Amino acid sequence: MTDAGHAPRGADPERAAVTNLRRWLTPGIGVKRWLLLTFVGLLVLVLGVAHVIRQATRDLEPGGIAGWILDVVSLQFLPYPVRGLVVGVVGLGLVGFGAYRTIRALTAPFLPAQGGGRLVELIYQRKSLARGPRIVVIGGGTGQSTILRGLKEHTSNLTAIVAVADDGGSSGVLREELGIPPVGDIRRCLAALADAENLVGEVLEHRFAGSPLDAAPEAGGALGGHAVGNILLAAMTQLEGGDFEEGVRRANRVLAIRGQVVPAAPTPLTLHARTRDGSVVDGQSLITRTVGIVEAWVSPAEVAACEDALVAIGEADLIVLGPGSLYTSLLPSLLLPEIRDAILGSGALRVYVCNVATQAGETQGLDLAGHVEALIAHTGADIVDVVLANNRAADGGSLRSPAEPVRLTWPPALVRAPRLVLDDVVDAHAAQRHDPARLAAALIRIHDREGSVRRRQSASRTA
């Protein structure tokens, strides 16, 4: 499957040109109005020429050679109704062909060798998607990149606020050696929001052979196991003098993504959890495998949030919490006081997207109400307006026991429960993850339906 504005590799150039022409004429590009104005101008010009011809025919002597030529040019030998039809058809054909060839001539220097429509896609993004709602997605892990992949087709006003508590794998090694926040989830979000996602993702996600925990030459050397995107973000940070926030900003610019990706905090966080039996577990990589979590917190507790994250929350029309691992992907950002207070004080509609399946370990056996109760217990009663959950069964063969689809138990044991919206948002072939397009469409519907209500409620409380 290919985007509407991109021709597949090896496609016929003529067919690609026709596809690109249709893209130029889609709503939001800002071209049709000027084509219409040009057409009206041509029509006025033709009317002026017609008046000149009419006056000339009156002034010429009948029977002369000049009069005969003018009669032929003005189709006087045809019945009057046929003249208009012939001229109209020829005129429309010439205008259409001229517009087609003009667009091809103007865009040819910007098209890939195989006939893609890069320029028109960029214009469509700037013109149409730039008018989309301002959406902030808070989370981490693969769930966040999944939702961004769907939402970028509806708006380019996207901000991904990414948790910085990961301490495993390549991110954990770079965190330990360079003292920078974990970059793995930021890398995934950058790849998901890139225009040329497949190409950028292939590069950013490529891992050098070996293991980041074994620097021996036969194990791949010092780069063994590290993802290219992780190394890139580490390099960007060093280029900015160790300023991680500015390093991520530079990565946003270099990759020319739709929207922006920002870390929740400019310094690494350590996640802690307490279980039912009172045991304390430290570190995200251990907590994700821990059963029976009752409390989670981060250290340092009062670390300042990134300014870009707070600005985006304050300007948002829609704030999406999740999807992603409840304790290890979503809560690390929400446990920062500045992030939590900014969300509570926002006038935006706030939606919690519950995972479609439980995870072996941190959410094992947790139902929908349990997810919401845990989220509220760690943040605040008003952190969420709407809960979005999946209501369609998928292929359960992709789940490994004890993971299971989240049971739709409702309402939670709260004084005031959020509104529940059920929709078909699961990947039909993978019961453990959301379908990007379906999830994005469901969120846009919720925003269109309930966003204005939330804004009125917020305005009335402020007044």
Could you explain how this protein is built, in words?
This protein has 463 residues and is α/β, with parallel strands linked by helices. It folds into 2 domains: 13-126, no CATH class; 127-462, CofD-like domains (Rossmann fold, 3-Layer(aba) Sandwich). It has helices at residues 13-24, 32-59, 65-73, 80-107, 118-127, 141-151, 169-178, 184-193, 197-205, 228-239, 244-255, 284-287, 307-315, 326-334, 337-344, 368-379, 436-462; strands spanning 135-139, 158-162, 260-263, 270-275, 280-282, 293-299, 318-321, 349-353, 386-390, 419-423, 426-427, 430-434. Helix 6 runs parallel beside helix 8, helix 6 (141-151) crosses helix 17 (436-462) and helix 13 (307-315) packs parallel to helix 15 (337-344). The longest helix has 28 residues, at 32-59. It is elongated. The two termini are 50 Å apart. Mean pLDDT is 84; it is low at 1-11.
